[in-house]
Design brief:
single chain, alpha+beta, Arc Repressor Mutant, subunit A, 3 helices, 43% helix, globular
Length: 87
């Protein structure tokens, strides 16, 4: 269950650990470490503390991300008016 040595990212869902810390999320999502820590501070983020470290189950992470995408899409379409030149 090691990340691809060349890219330092996971190649498949099965390679991703069951519990992820910030470093794993950086590898999975390709985000900067500071963006991951900012994301982990969001109140709705499904983190749990294990041994003093914030962790997230991989299933919960992907479900949360999908929900964030849905919420973002809803916000963008609520303000969209095809007859208006501004939002």
């Amino acid at each position: 269950m090691k990340a691809d040595q060349k890219s330092n990212r996971y190649c498949s869902y099965e390679q991703i650990p069951l519990f992820l810390d910030a470093n794993d999320i950086v590898k999975v999502l390709g985000l900067s470490r500071s963006n991951v820590y900012e994301m982990m501070r969001i109140e709705s983020f499904p983190a749990l503390i294990i041994g003093g470290r914030k962790m997230v189950r991989k299933e919960k992470l992907f479900a949360w991300l999908e929900n964030q995408n849905d919420v973002s899409h809803e916000k963008n379409t609520q303000n969209y008016n095809p007859t208006s030149s501004t939002f």
